[in-house]
Write a structure and sequence with these properties.
Layout: H1 21-38, H2 44-55, E1 65-67, E2 70-77, E3 80-88, H3 90-93, E4 101-105, H4 106-113, E5 117-124, E6 131-138, E7 144-150, E8 155-156, E9 162-166, E10 169-174, E11 177-181, E12 197-202, E13 211-215, E14 226-231, E15 237-244, E16 250-256, E17 259-262, E18 269-275, E19 278-283, E20 304-308, H5 309-314, E21 322-325, E22 331-338, E23 343-349, E24 353-361, E25 365-370, E26 378-384, E27 390-396, E28 403-408, E29 413-419, E30 429-437, E31 443-451, E32 462-465, H6 480-487, E33 492-496, H7 506-510, H8 518-533, E34 542-547, H9 549-560, E35 567-571, H10 590-593, H11 599-608, H12 610-613, E36 624-628, H13 637-648, E37 654-658, H14 669-687
Parallel strand pairs: 32-33, 32-34, 34-35, 35-36, 36-37
Antiparallel strand pairs: 1-2, 2-3, 3-4, 5-6, 6-7, 7-8, 7-9, 10-11, 11-12, 12-13, 14-15, 15-16, 16-17, 18-19, 19-20, 20-21, 22-23, 23-24, 24-25, 26-27, 27-28, 28-29, 30-31, 31-33
Helix pairs in contact: 2-6, 2-14
Amino acid sequence: MDKAGTELPDNYAWLEDVNGTRSMEWVKGENERSAKVLEADPRFGEFREQALKVLESPTRLQTPVFRNGAVYNTWQDADHIRGIVRRTTLADYLTPQPHWQTILDYDALAKADNEKWVQKGLNCLYPDDGLCMVALSAGGEDADTLREFDLKAGKFTDGGFVLSKSKQRAAWMDKDTLLVSRDWGKGTMTASGYPFIVKRWKRGQPLDQAEEIFRGSEADGGYGVSPIVINDAQGHRVVLIYRPRSTFEIELSVVTANGVKLLGLPKKMSPAGLLNGQLIVELNEDWTPEGQPKGSHSVGQGSLVSLDLAALEKDPVHLKPTIVFAPTGKEFEQEVSTTRNHLLVTTLEHVQGRVYEYTWDGHRGWSRKKLDVPDNQTVGIVTTNTSDDKFFLGLTGFLTPSSLMLGDAATGELKTVKTLPAQFDASKSVVEQLEATSKDGTKVPYFVVHPKDMKYDGSNPTLLTAYGGFQVSETPRYSGVVGKLWLEKGGVYVLANIRGGGEFGPAWHEAGLKTHRQRIYDDFAAVGQDLVTRKITSPRRLGITGGSNGGLLMGVEFEQHPEMWNAVVIQVPLLDMLGFEHIAAGASWVGEYGSTSVPAERQFLASISPYNNLDPKANYPEPLIFTTTKDDRVGPVHARKFAARMEEYKKPFFYDEIVEGGHAAGADLKEQSRTWAEYYLYLTRKLVD
């Protein structure tokens, strides 16, 4: 876009041919040019070795998953590059050195198949999880291959279910039946590349003979139609069809013996679990149930409610919700999970983690008990057991090594059972929570991790990050890589809780939707300016980093405030906001960003699109642009075109596009260590040297 606001021709559309010869030759040239500088720095090897030591440490927490009466863990290390699935008993897991039995070896499978598999998890049959669909991705793509695996026997099922590569979802109805949404052939995928047809597939039946039970539309938004089967320990089951009409607007239907029936729920909501015949639903907008006078009996945005399953199946339209959790002015629900008899709910109270245990009584409704967890740490639900009431919580903080707490909802017992050994020296650092004032007067909280003896003279190398979108909450977490490569070397690390996220509920997210998105960018700039005003740092020593939607944030800040930063890391980004709807899965995010088909939204997107607003006369900092060829979510196209236009304008930049990794930093730990080393070496060169 030129000074007069005229849109420039897209001279780099040829880079949208992701694997084309011309595109890949360009990628190879840019990779080699940047590597000659960054990888030739004598510190690169040291940074990579330090990152790899953290990532492959044998003392890392072994994340537990409850399955069929045992504890399972997926593990990667120097000997298992692609990873293994292993199991042990709960009693053995709680010992310092568990005795693991390998159940599935992804490295061996990749070798046997001559494929660079990246594991994408297990989807197992309730209640004993004996049969699972193993998700395998070629190089980290969202599209995957699904294969049936006998978890108890530790082998793939002879003649079992197999679903070839597709963006797809499968849900177990019973041991001989799957509900599947996938690419069924021409005209069965949405404009954003996700499935909209669900079929019932019986064991032994040719896939092309599977029975269609639901059909959405090619115009559907979001991530496509998904079948969902939820069970509870009391013998209830609900089969749902989750149909996104746009990025955040959902139609939820229940599948019964009489067919598929649309539920009378608001569009902005999400099913969250089933307990004692009560369907748990998260509400992201105010809701007056059908049949109630407008404005009366309204359930507030951000509430968690339950619906009686029997009543729902009898009358899916006139629903009678019971409130489980209602947000306050400062506390908002984050996660929900069920044990055998109880409901666990995590919240954020001014970005501080809280946990509650809820119990259902058919006569009195829901009662709750607050669990005793430490302050100043992020709390998450790691796994719950529906065969009993045990669960694991994960706790983490910027300077506090991550730990696991084992709880029993039946007894109220909760104790720390595993703690990660320190991966860096945090003794000289401290964490503060501060506030900046955005352009419209909104208070924006942010965390600062800095040396205890930090001088307030603007000289401190500082890295600022945020995400600001899709109602994603950014909270403190322990990172050995950040600690070792940045904090331990005297750097300051800042996490901003800007609008667009979910730290303060749905309204905090909605404040930055579509044409209101400039508020998000103003929030981030305000935090950056506040850091300078407080003399924590200065533009010479201030760098910023973000990925995906956060990569878009970086691109906007790079152009709107080039004088504020001396380093910008733009990771797997969206940058061409006039073309994003036709790139990879871009059409699924119209609810977040708006659409160029709407004049006012197009005008706004044109005003902030980093690719379209590069100024050949501007003085920009030299950024590091990172992406992966195998990213089939955002895609490498945005990064490529942005870099190519910078090259046209003779603006300096570093570029790195790795092949594998999908929408992430690498497909395995060695690849990730190289990426992190590159990031922090670049930041050191720009902000410390």
